[in-house]
Amino acid sequence: MSFSAPGSPPPPGQPPYTSAAPYPAQPYQGQPHPGQPYPGQPVYPGPPPVDVLRSPQGLATALTVLLSVAAAIDLFSAGANMFAWSLMKDVIADPGQVAEGTLDLSDILTGLAGGLQLLAMLATATVFIVWFYRVRVNGEIFRPDAFSQGRGWAIGAWFIPVGNLFLPFRTARQIWTASTQLGPDGSYRHVSSAPLTAWWTVWVAALCFDRVFSQMYKRAETPAAVRDASLVGIAADLLMVAAAVFAVLFVRKLTALQNTKAAQGPYAAV
Protein backbone atom coordinates (compact mmCIF):
# COMPACT_ATOMS: atom_id res chain seq x y z
CA MET A 1 0.00 0.00 0.00
CA SER A 2 1.28 3.53 -0.75
CA PHE A 3 0.13 6.90 0.39
CA SER A 4 0.54 10.32 -1.16
CA ALA A 5 2.72 13.11 0.13
CA PRO A 6 1.05 16.32 1.33
CA GLY A 7 -0.36 18.20 -1.58
CA SER A 8 0.46 15.53 -4.21
CA PRO A 9 -1.94 13.21 -6.03
CA PRO A 10 -1.83 9.47 -5.34
CA PRO A 11 0.05 7.24 -7.79
CA PRO A 12 -1.95 6.20 -10.89
CA GLY A 13 -4.48 3.55 -10.05
CA GLN A 14 -3.77 3.85 -6.33
CA PRO A 15 -6.42 5.21 -3.94
CA PRO A 16 -5.27 7.86 -1.48
CA TYR A 17 -4.10 6.90 1.99
CA THR A 18 -7.60 6.79 3.42
CA SER A 19 -6.70 7.12 7.08
CA ALA A 20 -4.53 10.19 6.56
CA ALA A 21 -5.86 13.44 7.95
CA PRO A 22 -5.21 16.61 5.89
CA TYR A 23 -1.75 18.01 6.56
CA PRO A 24 -1.61 21.56 7.98
CA ALA A 25 -1.15 24.33 5.44
CA GLN A 26 2.12 25.46 7.04
CA PRO A 27 5.30 23.65 5.96
CA TYR A 28 7.33 21.33 8.18
CA GLN A 29 9.89 23.04 10.34
CA GLY A 30 12.90 23.88 8.23
CA GLN A 31 11.07 23.57 4.90
CA PRO A 32 10.48 26.47 2.52
CA HIS A 33 6.96 27.74 2.04
CA PRO A 34 4.90 26.23 -0.78
CA GLY A 35 5.93 27.55 -4.16
CA GLN A 36 9.45 28.52 -3.10
CA PRO A 37 12.33 26.39 -4.38
CA TYR A 38 14.81 24.92 -1.95
CA PRO A 39 18.13 26.79 -1.76
CA GLY A 40 20.22 25.84 -4.78
CA GLN A 41 17.38 23.88 -6.41
CA PRO A 42 17.12 24.50 -10.17
CA VAL A 43 13.92 26.06 -11.42
CA TYR A 44 12.14 23.77 -13.89
CA PRO A 45 10.04 25.17 -16.73
CA GLY A 46 7.13 23.00 -15.59
CA PRO A 47 6.02 21.50 -12.30
CA PRO A 48 8.99 20.03 -10.39
CA PRO A 49 9.15 16.26 -9.84
CA VAL A 50 7.05 15.18 -6.88
CA ASP A 51 8.15 12.41 -4.56
CA VAL A 52 5.39 10.26 -3.15
CA LEU A 53 5.28 8.77 0.32
CA ARG A 54 5.21 4.99 0.10
CA SER A 55 4.28 2.85 3.05
CA PRO A 56 7.18 0.70 4.34
CA GLN A 57 4.75 -1.60 6.19
CA GLY A 58 4.90 -4.53 3.76
CA LEU A 59 8.69 -4.49 3.66
CA ALA A 60 8.81 -4.24 7.45
CA THR A 61 6.62 -7.34 7.74
CA ALA A 62 8.85 -9.24 5.32
CA LEU A 63 11.91 -8.14 7.28
CA THR A 64 10.38 -9.35 10.53
CA VAL A 65 9.95 -12.81 9.00
CA LEU A 66 13.42 -12.88 7.42
CA LEU A 67 15.15 -11.65 10.57
CA SER A 68 13.31 -14.27 12.62
CA VAL A 69 14.44 -17.01 10.23
CA ALA A 70 18.01 -15.66 10.32
CA ALA A 71 17.96 -15.70 14.13
CA ALA A 72 16.81 -19.34 14.12
CA ILE A 73 19.64 -20.25 11.73
CA ASP A 74 22.13 -18.44 13.96
CA LEU A 75 20.91 -20.48 16.92
CA PHE A 76 21.46 -23.64 14.87
CA SER A 77 24.96 -22.42 14.03
CA ALA A 78 25.65 -21.75 17.69
CA GLY A 79 24.61 -25.33 18.43
CA ALA A 80 26.91 -26.65 15.70
CA ASN A 81 29.82 -24.65 17.10
CA MET A 82 29.05 -25.83 20.60
CA PHE A 83 29.08 -29.43 19.36
CA ALA A 84 32.46 -28.83 17.67
CA TRP A 85 33.84 -27.20 20.82
CA SER A 86 32.76 -30.13 23.00
CA LEU A 87 34.08 -32.63 20.45
CA MET A 88 37.49 -30.97 20.29
CA LYS A 89 37.72 -31.09 24.08
CA ASP A 90 37.18 -34.85 23.88
CA VAL A 91 39.76 -35.20 21.10
CA ILE A 92 42.34 -33.32 23.16
CA ALA A 93 41.58 -35.44 26.23
CA ASP A 94 41.58 -38.83 24.46
CA PRO A 95 41.64 -38.98 20.65
CA GLY A 96 40.99 -42.71 20.60
CA GLN A 97 37.57 -42.31 22.19
CA VAL A 98 36.18 -40.11 19.39
CA ALA A 99 34.72 -41.92 16.38
CA GLU A 100 35.65 -40.76 12.89
CA GLY A 101 31.97 -40.47 11.99
CA THR A 102 31.45 -38.00 14.82
CA LEU A 103 34.17 -35.74 13.43
CA ASP A 104 32.57 -35.92 9.99
CA LEU A 105 29.18 -35.03 11.49
CA SER A 106 30.68 -31.94 13.13
CA ASP A 107 32.13 -30.81 9.80
CA ILE A 108 28.77 -31.37 8.07
CA LEU A 109 26.85 -29.39 10.68
CA THR A 110 29.34 -26.51 10.60
CA GLY A 111 29.26 -26.36 6.80
CA LEU A 112 25.46 -26.56 6.68
CA ALA A 113 25.14 -23.77 9.24
CA GLY A 114 27.52 -21.55 7.27
CA GLY A 115 25.63 -22.13 4.01
CA LEU A 116 22.26 -21.38 5.57
CA GLN A 117 23.63 -18.25 7.22
CA LEU A 118 24.92 -17.00 3.87
CA LEU A 119 21.56 -17.52 2.17
CA ALA A 120 19.67 -15.87 5.02
CA MET A 121 22.08 -12.94 5.04
CA LEU A 122 21.71 -12.32 1.29
CA ALA A 123 17.90 -12.42 1.41
CA THR A 124 17.64 -10.29 4.55
CA ALA A 125 20.22 -7.73 3.41
CA THR A 126 18.44 -7.26 0.06
CA VAL A 127 15.04 -6.60 1.63
CA PHE A 128 16.57 -4.48 4.39
CA ILE A 129 18.33 -2.16 1.94
CA VAL A 130 15.12 -1.73 -0.08
CA TRP A 131 13.24 -0.90 3.14
CA PHE A 132 16.02 1.42 4.30
CA TYR A 133 15.97 3.35 1.04
CA ARG A 134 12.19 3.68 1.17
CA VAL A 135 12.15 5.11 4.69
CA ARG A 136 15.02 7.42 3.67
CA VAL A 137 12.96 8.82 0.78
CA ASN A 138 9.94 9.19 3.06
CA GLY A 139 12.10 10.96 5.61
CA GLU A 140 13.26 13.46 3.01
CA ILE A 141 9.65 14.22 2.11
CA PHE A 142 8.83 14.74 5.77
CA ARG A 143 11.85 16.94 6.50
CA PRO A 144 14.40 17.56 3.74
CA ASP A 145 16.50 19.67 6.12
CA ALA A 146 17.21 16.67 8.35
CA PHE A 147 19.76 15.04 6.03
CA SER A 148 23.41 15.86 5.44
CA GLN A 149 23.86 13.57 2.40
CA GLY A 150 21.89 12.52 -0.66
CA ARG A 151 19.45 9.62 -0.55
CA GLY A 152 21.77 7.42 -2.59
CA TRP A 153 23.91 7.02 0.51
CA ALA A 154 21.13 4.92 2.04
CA ILE A 155 22.30 2.21 -0.37
CA GLY A 156 25.92 3.05 -1.15
CA ALA A 157 27.06 3.45 2.46
CA TRP A 158 26.57 -0.28 3.10
CA PHE A 159 29.23 -1.17 0.52
CA ILE A 160 32.04 1.13 1.69
CA PRO A 161 34.73 -0.76 3.62
CA VAL A 162 35.09 0.55 7.18
CA GLY A 163 32.60 3.32 6.37
CA ASN A 164 29.79 0.76 6.54
CA LEU A 165 30.48 0.53 10.28
CA PHE A 166 29.17 4.05 10.93
CA LEU A 167 27.74 5.74 7.79
CA PRO A 168 24.44 3.78 7.69
CA PHE A 169 23.98 4.50 11.40
CA ARG A 170 24.24 8.24 10.77
CA THR A 171 21.66 7.99 7.99
CA ALA A 172 19.38 5.91 10.22
CA ARG A 173 19.54 8.55 12.98
CA GLN A 174 18.61 11.26 10.48
CA ILE A 175 15.70 9.18 9.18
CA TRP A 176 14.55 8.69 12.79
CA THR A 177 14.65 12.45 13.41
CA ALA A 178 12.81 13.24 10.18
CA SER A 179 10.13 10.64 10.93
CA THR A 180 9.37 11.94 14.43
CA GLN A 181 6.40 14.27 14.80
CA LEU A 182 6.96 17.69 16.28
CA GLY A 183 5.03 18.91 19.29
CA PRO A 184 1.64 20.61 18.80
CA ASP A 185 3.40 24.00 19.00
CA GLY A 186 6.10 22.98 16.53
CA SER A 187 8.72 22.34 19.20
CA TYR A 188 11.16 19.42 19.10
CA ARG A 189 9.66 16.20 20.45
CA HIS A 190 12.06 13.52 21.64
CA VAL A 191 11.34 9.87 20.85
CA SER A 192 13.92 7.49 22.27
CA SER A 193 16.16 5.97 19.60
CA ALA A 194 17.22 3.13 21.91
CA PRO A 195 16.07 0.44 19.42
CA LEU A 196 18.34 1.94 16.75
CA THR A 197 21.35 2.35 19.06
CA ALA A 198 21.00 -1.14 20.55
CA TRP A 199 20.67 -2.76 17.13
CA TRP A 200 23.67 -1.00 15.65
CA THR A 201 25.94 -1.57 18.66
CA VAL A 202 25.20 -5.30 18.81
CA TRP A 203 25.32 -5.64 15.02
CA VAL A 204 28.83 -4.14 14.78
CA ALA A 205 30.02 -6.31 17.69
CA ALA A 206 28.60 -9.40 15.95
CA LEU A 207 30.38 -8.50 12.70
CA CYS A 208 33.69 -8.14 14.55
CA PHE A 209 33.31 -11.48 16.33
CA ASP A 210 32.27 -13.18 13.10
CA ARG A 211 35.34 -11.83 11.29
CA VAL A 212 37.62 -13.09 14.07
CA PHE A 213 35.88 -16.49 14.01
CA SER A 214 36.31 -16.82 10.24
CA GLN A 215 40.03 -16.11 10.42
CA MET A 216 40.57 -18.43 13.38
CA TYR A 217 38.60 -21.26 11.76
CA LYS A 218 40.50 -20.96 8.46
CA ARG A 219 43.85 -21.16 10.25
CA ALA A 220 42.87 -23.88 12.72
CA GLU A 221 45.06 -26.94 12.18
CA THR A 222 44.97 -28.51 15.63
CA PRO A 223 42.09 -29.65 17.87
CA ALA A 224 42.95 -26.88 20.33
CA ALA A 225 42.75 -24.24 17.59
CA VAL A 226 39.39 -25.59 16.37
CA ARG A 227 38.12 -25.59 19.95
CA ASP A 228 39.10 -21.94 20.46
CA ALA A 229 37.64 -20.92 17.10
CA SER A 230 34.37 -22.69 17.92
CA LEU A 231 34.10 -20.76 21.19
CA VAL A 232 34.43 -17.46 19.33
CA GLY A 233 31.88 -18.75 16.80
CA ILE A 234 29.36 -19.39 19.57
CA ALA A 235 29.76 -15.80 20.78
CA ALA A 236 29.39 -14.46 17.21
CA ASP A 237 26.23 -16.50 16.59
CA LEU A 238 24.58 -15.43 19.84
CA LEU A 239 25.41 -11.79 19.09
CA MET A 240 23.82 -12.23 15.65
CA VAL A 241 20.67 -13.53 17.31
CA ALA A 242 20.55 -10.49 19.61
CA ALA A 243 21.20 -8.16 16.65
CA ALA A 244 18.30 -9.74 14.73
CA VAL A 245 15.96 -9.16 17.68
CA PHE A 246 17.01 -5.52 18.02
CA ALA A 247 16.75 -5.06 14.24
CA VAL A 248 13.12 -6.21 14.34
CA LEU A 249 12.39 -3.68 17.10
CA PHE A 250 14.12 -0.90 15.15
CA VAL A 251 12.37 -1.69 11.86
CA ARG A 252 8.93 -1.90 13.43
CA LYS A 253 9.38 1.28 15.50
CA LEU A 254 10.67 3.41 12.62
CA THR A 255 7.93 2.08 10.35
CA ALA A 256 5.34 2.98 12.99
CA LEU A 257 6.78 6.50 13.31
CA GLN A 258 6.46 7.06 9.56
CA ASN A 259 2.94 5.62 9.40
CA THR A 260 1.86 7.90 12.24
CA LYS A 261 3.41 11.00 10.68
CA ALA A 262 1.88 10.22 7.29
CA ALA A 263 -1.57 9.68 8.79
CA GLN A 264 -1.62 12.50 11.36
CA GLY A 265 0.70 15.10 9.85
CA PRO A 266 3.93 16.65 11.16
CA TYR A 267 2.49 17.82 14.49
CA ALA A 268 1.52 15.46 17.30
CA ALA A 269 -1.96 15.90 18.73
CA VAL A 270 -0.65 16.00 22.31
Question: Topology of this protein?
Answer:
Blueprint: H1 57-93, H2 100-142, H3 153-156, H4 167-179, H5 194-219, H6 223-264
Folded structure, characterized:
With about 270 residues, the protein is mostly helical. Helices cover about 60% and strands about 0% of the residues. The protein has six helices and no strands. It has helices spanning about 55-95, 100-140, 155, 165-180, 195-220, 225-265. It is elongated. Residues about 1-45 have low confidence and may be disordered.
Approximate shape: elongated
Extract low-pLDDT stretches: 1-44
Query: How far apart, in Å, are the first and last alpha carbons?
Result: 27 Å
Rg, nearest Å = 24 Å
Helix fraction by DSSP (H/I, runs of at least 4): 55-70%
What is the gist of this entry?
With 270 residues, this protein is mostly helical.
Structural descriptors:
single chain; 270 residues; mainly alpha; 61% helix; elongated
